[in-house]
Amino acid sequence: MMTRSPQSQPAATVRDVPPYTRLAPVYDAVMAHVDYAHWAAYAHGRLQRHHPDPQTLLELGCGTGALAVELQPLGGYDYRATDASADMLAVARATAEERDVPVRFAEMDFTALAVDERFDAVVLLYDGLNYLQEPPALQALFRGAHDALRPGGVFLFDQSTPVNSINNAQLFDDAGEVDGIAYERRSAYDPATRTHVTTFELTVDGRTYRERHVQRAYTPDEIRAQLRATPFEQVAAYDNFSTAPATDASERIHWVVRRPR
User: Fold this and answer.
1) Residue 117 belongs to what domain range?
2) pLDDT tens digits, residue range 31-55?
3) Tally of structural domains, the chain
4) pLDDT tens-digit readout, 173-227
5) Dihedral angle at the C-alpha atoms of 39, 29, 21, 97, nearest 10 degrees?
6) Sheet containing 233-239: which strands, arranged edge to edge?
7) What's phi and psi for 29, nearest 5 deg?
8) Quick check: is 210 in a domain?
9) How far is CA 249 from the centre of its chain?
10) pTM above the 0.85 mark?
């Protein structure tokens, strides 16, 4: 008697989508381990340290507005926040409205800034710079931030270093489900190219989407070299949310640079 082989089930189709599209509705839940109140307090302290009275602030790469709603009240800043992702901005606007925090949002790529006003401070935090893969993109960011500042204004930005990718590799993979959206996050770091790739697979209403996030882990010396090619005055480079100077062993560095008066 002949038996029929079980028919193999077709593999589920995975659709590739741009970063921060399908991820946007669950981003804050996926990143629940990030203490944005702590990030905001640290950023506020550095701004107060290096600017006598910052009143106007431009945030680049604001994402879901999680930092903005914590940072704006600390200084009562006239706060403008930008991001290139319309999906993330939709969440940000809803968050600011729910928290009753006055933030003006605009869709904008931080390598092609086009603002019609000048600010006392510009901030770009939580690895935004690491998404820029090549020096020309870094220079575009620095030019835009410089031009968006008033003379004497400061640009505060951070970077994740190769040390962070190496030391914390085990922390970058996880999975879960939030509001009916299942997600899986996988990361891989190539020390030869210092490229860190994080892949999210998100299942929504039975369909699976994949976002691929590619970052470059710059060394401190590479960022210093790029800054030397700008009009900025280099003010400080801080180690891991402290007031100590950054070193080659730093996992995260917060840089402060100033537009000359």
Assistant:
1) 32-162+218-258
2) 888 999 999 999 999 999 999 899 9
3) 1
4) 889 998 889 999 999 999 999 999 999 999 999 999 999 999 999 999 999 999 9
5) -70
6) 103-107, 78-83, 56-60, 119-124, 149-160, 252-258, 233-239
7) -70, -40
8) no
9) 21
10) yes
